[in-house]
Amino acid sequence: xxxxxxxxxxxxxxxxxxxxxxxxxxxxxxxxxxxxxxxxxxxxxxxxxxxxxxxxxxxxxxxxxxxxxxxxxxxxxxxxxxxxxxxxxxxxxxxxxxxxxxxxxxxxxxxxxxxxxxxxxxxxxxxxxxxxxxxxxxxxxxxxxxxxxxxxxxxxxxxxxxxxxxxxxxxxxxxxxxxxxxxxxxxxxxxxxxxxxxxxxxxxxxxxxxxxxxxxxxx
Length: 219
Ligand code: DX5
Ligand code: ZN
Fold this sequence. Notes:
Helix content is 35%, strand content 20%.
């Protein structure tokens, strides 16, 4: 099932609550919340208290992308803040399987992410336990970068493995997704699309979400 997840990284942080409400009205499925710690990535954004502060403003699924060094330590905090899906990086220093187990014990959906240059081999044995794999299509850390088409091979591998095993794991793409690249990612097998600049930078975000959804559906 196709899902569009606008990234608040490109929103007006001084109005985060209304930006979340606005995305719900615009027809988004998820709200993508990029948590950065200045260690795992060279940028700092926000943490659990900020997410908690907007939880009662929308019923959108909170799709929390942890770009932090020690995700395992903070899973409960993000659950309490209202996360629905928690995705962490396989390159982080937390043990992957234990972190997935912790996320699921908390009652959240679990995702693992790979940076553009990281292979998916380490993730394949964990597929049965996962709800989502996030294949980064830019180096994590900043919005507004260009989509890296070389990451599509990993999506094809994942999609065929998911199908071969009869699983229903979502494949999310994040970074440089717009009207030109959404079809490429969808054709490779992605079904959850994060879009920051494309949605928040559009004159009509509702139309943009609809366009991205339609382009993905026909790919
Ligand atoms: C990058 C973040 C992305 C970012 C995407 O590290 O994970 O979610 O907000 O922004 P765009 O869509 O502008 O590339
Ligand atoms: Zn992200």
